[in-house]
Design a protein that fits this description.
The protein is mainly α. It has two domains: 48 residues, Orthogonal Bundle (Arc Repressor Mutant, subunit A); 126 residues, Tetracycline Repressor, domain 2, CATH 1.10.357. 75% of the residues lie in helices and 0% in strands. It has ten helices and no strands. The longest helix is centred in the N-terminal third of the chain and has 23 residues. It is elongated.
Length: 195
């Protein structure tokens, strides 16, 4: 007999896949129960509402993202850490071209529908921006938050366009360009004002 936590984890994994594939609002608890192999009546033992399972999915995505970013930080050089994340995204370009970025897609959907989960989902983007800003701070940039935002905007923009065009080659091409941009960064940048 499976452990209680096994069923809960199966429900979360099923929900993550379904939400990425068809969106939060189109995914039903019945869909999640069927995909996870957990009887629908048992779903309510673990999650009282669809929003509760949505929050669990967001927390799992945030945990995975944090783990990925921590893995990238094993690089001593901040440029190498940034490039490691870019290469990680590039390796997933086929899935992103088909389904979109799982974090950004969920943020967009929940924000459009004014969901109570929107702020929680947006936290994944803030985690990524903060991590990138830390890398630019380590490089000595006077405005690391601006640079962190720019890096994530380039990363997410390439994924968004690659998904819209269903073109993984487009994503890989722009990830290569982003690596070139990183390589061209000054280690000790000249301070300048943006107008």
């Amino acid at each position: 007999m499976p452990k209680t936590s096994d069923k809960r984890e199966r429900l979360i994994e099923a929900a993550k896949g379904l939400i990425h594939q068809q969106g939060f609002h189109r995914t039903t608890l019945a869909d999640i129960a069927k995909k996870s192999g957990v009887p629908l009546g048992n779903v309510y033992y673990y999650f009282k509402t669809k929003e509760e399972i949505g929050e669990a999915v967001i927390q799992e995505r945030k945990k995975k993202l944090t783990g990925t970013l921590d893995l990238c930080c094993k690089q001593v050089d901040p440029k190498a850490a940034l490039k490691k994340l870019v290469k990680y995204v590039s390796r997933g370009s086929d899935e992103v071209a088909e389904k979109g970025c799982p974090n950004a897609s969920l943020c967009q959907e929940l924000d459009k529908n004014h969901s109570s989960l929107a702020d929680s989902a947006d936290e994944c983007m803030r985690v990524m921006i903060d991590w990138a800003s830390d890398q630019f701070k380590a490089l000595g940039y006077a405005d690391p938050n601006r640079m962190g935002f720019e890096f994530v905007a380039r990363l997410q923009g390439a994924m968004l366009l690659g998904h819209a065009l269903h073109d993984p080659k487009c994503i890989r091409r722009h990830m290569n360009a982003l690596c070139e941009w990183i390589d061209g960064l000054n280690d000790v940048p000249v301070q300048r004002k943006i107008t």
